[in-house]
Amino acid sequence: MEPIPHPPRSIHPKIEDAPQGVEELTELHTRLVDTIAGFEKMVEKAEPAFRPVAIAFKAMHSAHARAVGEMLVEDGHDPAQDGSLFGAVNRGLVAVRSWFDEIDENVMSALVQGEKHVLEAYEEAIAQTDVPQRREALTAMRDEQIAVMDRHCPPA
Question: 80 lies in a domain?
């Protein structure tokens, strides 16, 4: 079923007053969806001892993607659920790596780099929004991600 297009901004008053930072919020949502794609494959291929780490990250990013998606819908946007080409690459890289190597603590450096990519998007979205409640929610999500990283990704 085709999504119903939103009316032009000049017709729809709620869309007309969209807050600042929608582009950055959309980019954050895309990065979250892409990251989830990688973690879905990681959960599937992970060694038993590492699977809880992959599950924790996937659950957190899934909850955050839903919340950011709801923010976009509030602004009259239809958030994409399939991410970008990067998400497909994430899934492929995890699958290929699992053919030659175990998906365990050895993937931590790649995991941390991916998480930093998401954190950069949080920083941009936080800096660009003009809605205080949204800034607070995005800051809380970013802080939760940092806490999960601190718990599961010890410094090298």
Answer: yes
d(CA 53, CA 37): 15
Q: Give the Å distances, CA to CA, from 57 to 13, 14, 22, 132, 135.
A: 38, 34, 25, 26, 22
Residue 17: its pLDDT value, please?
62
pTM of the predicted structure, to 2 decimals: 0.75
- Specify the pLDDT at position 152: 85
Which neighbouring-strand residues pair with 103? 46
Angle between helix 85-100 and 22-45 (nearest 10): 20
Total domains in the chain come to: 1
Specify whether the CB–CB gap between 68 and 28 falls below 8 A.
yes
Residue 143 within a domain: yes
Residues with Cβ within 8 Å of 147's Cβ and at least 6 positions away in sequence, in order, are: none
